[in-house]
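Z., the sequence and structure:
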Amino acid sequence: MTADPSRFPNGLKAVADYVHSKKANGMPLLFGVYTCMGSQTCVGGRPGSLGHYAEDAQYFADNGVDAVKADW
């Protein structure tokens, strides 16, 4: 799993850091992402997490993601 460089030219961590720097009602915002448990996402045909669950979870954690929504 890697961030699409055309959509996230500075990587996923930069997005997470930016979101975390913002506040709502005095509380920092949390950053969540979506992934698919299959081989590719339903919309856009992007790579899914099939067979790479642990690696993808570590990638999200390493990049400051607070929550992951995973669908089939």
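Residues 12-21 form the longest helix (10 residues). The chain has a mean pLDDT of 92.

Let me know what you think.
H.
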